[in-house]
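I'll show an entry:

:::
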Amino acid sequence: AINNPLLQPDTSQVKRCLVSVSGDHTLSLSKIDKVISTISNEIPEEAQLKFGVQNNPNLGSKVKIMVLANGPVSPFVRAAVDSVTDSSPLSIFGF
């Protein structure tokens, strides 16, 4: 549920986690519980986990899950930060 091959986050370092689950009126409490339980089992027991559920009739039978986690650092991000040797601030979008 929270695997991302592009970021490869280390979920053992999660401190806070916010989960949004969206679905239509057929989204059952048991499906929501399964999503939250799966994510809860992947993060440390002491991590704060909050979630919300939204009814979105446009999704039909699909379920949309968004996970925002504070704490894990992708190895790709860490490598990019470590490679910056200049002490000047990073320029984003040319500003």
